[in-house]
């Protein structure tokens, strides 16, 4: 597992220019929202959770297509499958690596983007925790969609159609947690639900994506 994680890290680092695109896209979306909606601080503070989550979701979608593309093109997936290495282990390494380069990066950007949207400083740590859990679910569920379209040349649009409906519950509980905190209401229940979703997705996604990826390899 450590070897797979190191391999994925090195491959991603060599293609780091492509991985920066989602982060730049996220920054551009957050920057343009006040110009397109309203510059008023009170209204932006109310809309901030939804804006941050939608931007993070769209930024994650941009990088999902890269998860298996190059390995499928150069035959690495076939070699891993033929070597007897469980595909679930490879996919788990890819999920963790994708989250580190995309989800964690988006989480660390949250305080700066939250300040741009006039989000209260008291909520920054909670926002980072919620984004960390939510983006982990995005990476796990996204691996299933990426595995299904791994053999397609232009599967980006189909990938988005597959995973966006599955992302909606994460979006609801993520924004609900922050909105409840802003309103002074209890937010432990939606936060715990989001944590449970992250645990279930991380446990189940490698096996489901492995089955889907085996179908793509055989095709």
TrEMBL record:
It is found in: Cell inner membrane. Keywords: Cell inner membrane, Cell membrane, Cytochrome c-type biogenesis, Membrane, Transmembrane, Transmembrane helix, Transport. The chain crosses the membrane at residues 20-38, 44-64, 99-119, 125-150, 157-185, 191-213. It comes from the Bacteria. It is a multi-pass membrane protein. One of its GO terms (cellular component) is plasma membrane. One of its GO terms (molecular function) is heme transmembrane transporter activity. The keyword NAD does not apply. One of its GO terms (biological process) is cytochrome complex assembly. Pfam families: CcmB (PF03379). The keyword Disulfide bond does not apply. Required for the export of heme to the periplasm for the biogenesis of c-type cytochromes. Belongs to the CcmB/CycW/HelB family. This is Heme exporter protein B. It comes from Natronospirillum operosum.
């Amino acid at each position: 597992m450590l070897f797979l994680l190191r391999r994925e890290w090195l491959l991603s680092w060599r293609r780091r220019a492509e991985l920066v695109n989602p982060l730049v896209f996220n920054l551009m979306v957050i920057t343009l929202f006040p110009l397109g909606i309203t510059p008023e601080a009170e209204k932006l503070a109310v809309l901030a959770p939804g804006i941050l989550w939608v931007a993070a979701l769209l930024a994650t979608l941009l990088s999902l297509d890269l998860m298996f593309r190059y390995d499928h093109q150069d035959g690495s997936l076939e070699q891993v499958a033929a070597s007897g290495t469980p595909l679930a282990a490879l996919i788990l390494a890819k999920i963790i690596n994708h989250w580190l380069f995309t989800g964690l990066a988006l989480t660390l950007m949250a305080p700066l983007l939250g300040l741009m949207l006039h989000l209260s400083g008291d909520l920054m740590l909670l926002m980072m925790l919620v984004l960390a859990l939510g983006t982990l679910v995005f990476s796990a569920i996204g691996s299933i969609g990426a595995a299904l379209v791994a053999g397609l040349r232009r599967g980006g649009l189909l990938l988005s159609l597959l995973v966006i409906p599955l992302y909606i519950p994460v979006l609801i509980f993520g924004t609900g947690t922050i909105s409840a905190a802003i309103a002074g209401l209890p937010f432990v229940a939606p936060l715990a639900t989001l944590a449970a979703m992250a645990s279930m997705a991380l446990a189940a996604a490698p096996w489901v994506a492995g089955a889907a990826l085996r179908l793509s390899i055989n095709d």
